[in-house]
Amino acid sequence: MMNSDAAPFPGTFGEETAPLYTDLYQLTMLQAYWREGMDETAVFDLFVRRLKDRNYLLACGLEQALEYLEELSFSEEALTYLAAQDQFSDDFLTWLEDFEFTGDVYAVPEGTPVFPDEPLVEVVAPIGEAQLAETFLLNQITFQTMIASKAVRVVEAARGGDSERLVADFGMRRMHGTDASMKAARAAYIAGVDATSNVAAGQAYDLPITGTMAHSYIEAHDSEMDAFREFAELYPETILLVDTYDTISGVKKVIELAEEKGDDFQVRGIRLDSGDLAELAKESRRLLDQAGLTDMMIFASSGLDEYKIRGLLDREAPIDGFGVGTKMGTSADQPTLDSAYKLCGYAGTPRMKLSSKKSNLPGRKQVIRQYENGTAVRDVIATVEDPPPGASLLERVMARGTRTEAGVPRPLESIREHAAARVAELPDRLRALDRSEKGYDVALSDAMEGRLEETRQRLERTM
Fold first, then answer.
1. Using CA atoms, how far apart are residues 252 and 264, in angstroms rounded to an integer?
2. pLDDT value at position 138?
3. CA angle 390, 392, 396 (to 5 degrees)
4. What domain range includes position 173?
């Protein structure tokens, strides 16, 4: 968990700017609600409309959402900035001086597989408070859920079966800004990635960090052998990058170094970063084994994603670990999620949007997961008042603006274990990389169907 006493990481929001991390129209609506005296309880759902090229999503980002809501207030600096915009009255800005979030939040635990239309988060609060939360909640939960959903696929590809192959996050340098690189490292670890190259994320979230050398280090020395010798002297258990000039020649130099050092040789492995990784891994393994270096691991990087990893393993490449960067850190094949945060109740009355392909489900909800022989077989989106039998996914994580026991920060190891256990409950077809034609059954309960139809008819009469 991030140290709450630490200064905000550069590029992220701090106390002075947090309430302004929103779209302008959230603030203009907030003033309109205040002016009209509209302060009754609203219900907003945060959900994803469709999966596209995923069989499921892995919910992530709740911790940052709750931290934001718990600390939400307008500083003097924020109010001064708003006053200078000439859109907000003095009385409204005075009211904002005491603004805080006083509502309830229900959410699925981080690391839980979720499906379309299921609320990841449900906010129940006075309408202005719930409205203001929209932008930040969508930003944090959408991004981390997107990255976790990509990373779990990479992990599944690398570890197929009972394999212990390692996966490291190498994507910081090409992610979309510093905040993205921090939250992506966190989300990837929850999804099962073993370590990150991002040192700041390692410090902030207590993640294992990994990394050794770049090609520039090799190039800066008069010879590749000199570079290997010096680096291994300083870091005896390092992994040596062998493809700067000629990969197989580099592997042979590592073997030569092992012969020089004899019993003092502790280098853990080599890294391949270019060329035909499968063939180079096979030849490298042959040479290392022939030299008696059977315990040395082969680590691979270079534009990897779950599909390339699967292809390498299908070719029986003897690779023990993968460094995955840009394509995981940006979720390159699906860099957006069709997420939404929609009003579904106000003043005790169910509400919904009727627009084609953008409608939503009205009223408070519970998501029930049903199992057969330990395998998840069906989810039911139900009214909160009348849920069917099964495991309830939405937990009350905040009550009257304060975290509940279910909402207190959890160690990432605990969230990671939860994710692994819940993913293991999914049918094999959903854990596969290819899109399952059969999909997964997400149904509406009879009570939800009835509420949906009743609300639709009521709204159509007012059109």
1. 18
2. 98
3. 165
4. 163-329
Across the beta sheet with 166-169, the strand order is: 195-196, 166-169, 321-324, 297-300, 269-272, 239-241
**What is the rounded CA–CA span in Å between residue 115 and residue 54?**
10
CATH of the domain at 189: 3.20.20.70
Identify the DSSP state of 262: G
Least reliable range by pLDDT among 10-14, 27-31, 236-240: 10-14
All residues at 6 or more sequence positions from 231 whose CB lies less than 8 Å from its CB, including other chains: 212, 213, 217, 238, 240
- Going by pLDDT thresholds of 50, 70 and 90, the confidence category of residue 462 is confident
Cβ–Cβ < 8 Å for 390, 369: yes
User: Please, are residues 30 and 19 in contact by the beta-carbon 8 Å criterion?
Assistant: no
The pLDDT tens digits of the residues spanning 151-168 come to: 999 999 998 756 789 999
Question: Is 435 among the domain residues?
Answer: no
Largest CA distance in the chain: 86
In the structure, what pLDDT confidence band is assigned to residue 47 with cuts at 50, 70 and 90? Answer: very high
Q: How many domains does the chain have?
A: 1
